[in-house]
Design goal:
This protein is mainly α. 78% of the residues lie in helices and 0% in strands. Helix 1 crosses helix 4 and helix 1 crosses helix 6. The N and C termini lie far apart (66 Å).
Length: 166
C-alpha cells in the first residue's frame, strides 16, 4: 500500500497555471515544477504521468477558470470597446503562450486553444451582432494588444476609436 498523497492536486494545478503562464512549457523544467509546486518528482509522475500531463491539466484549468468566464462576460458586452477592455484586462498568459509555443507542435493543445479562441470569437459575435470574421479580427486585435505588453496605452487608443464608431 502506497503512502497517501501529501499534496492538494487542485492547488498544484492552479500553481502550475501560474508557472506555465509566466515561463511557458519549454521554460519550465521538471526540477522547476518540483521546486515551485512542492511536489515530489515521483508524486508528480504518478499523478499527472508527465510534465506534459500536468501542463494539459493546467491549460484546461486556465481555460475553465479564466477563459470561459471571459467568454461569458464578452457575451454581455454592450459594445466593441467594452469587449476590447475585457480581453485586454484578462489574465490570458497561458492561453497566449500555448497558442504560440505548444499548439503548433501538439495537436491536443492546438484543439484546446482553437476551441477557446472560438468561444471568445463567438461570444463577441453574438454580443455585438458581428460576422464571425469580424469578431475573430476583434479578438485577434485584443490579444495582439496583450502581446505588445501595453494594454492600457494601445488598448485605450483603440477603445476610443471604437467608441467613436458606435
Amino acid at each position: 500500500m502506497g503512502r497517501p498523497r501529501a499534496f492538494d492536486e487542485d492547488e498544484v494545478v492552479r500553481a502550475a497555471v501560474g508557472l506555465f503562464g509566466s515561463r511557458a512549457y519549454d521554460g519550465v523544467s521538471v526540477d522547476d515544477l518540483v521546486t515551485h509546486l512542492g511536489v515530489h518528482r515521483n508524486s508528480l509522475y504518478k499523478t499527472f504521468g508527465s510534465k506534459r500531463g500536468l501542463y494539459l491539466a493546467a491549460l484546461r484549468r486556465h481555460l475553465a477558470d479564466d477563459v470561459r468566464p471571459l467568454a461569458d462576460a464578452l457575451a454581455a458586452a454592450p459594445d466593441a470597446a467594452t469587449a476590447l477592455r475585457l480581453v485586454t484586462s484578462a489574465d490570458l498568459g497561458l492561453l497566449l503562450l500555448a497558442a504560440v509555443e505548444r499548439a503548433p507542435v501538439d495537436e491536443e493543445v492546438a484543439a484546446e486553444v482553437t476551441a477557446a479562441l472560438g468561444a471568445l470569437d463567438q461570444a463577441i459575435a453574438d454580443a455585438l451582432g458581428l460576422s464571425a470574421d469580424l469578431a475573430a479580427a476583434l479578438t485577434a486585435a485584443a490579444l495582439g494588444i496583450l502581446l505588445r505588453g501595453n494594454p492600457e496605452g494601445v488598448g485605450a487608443a483603440l477603445s476610443q476609436r471604437l467608441d467613436s464608431l458606435a
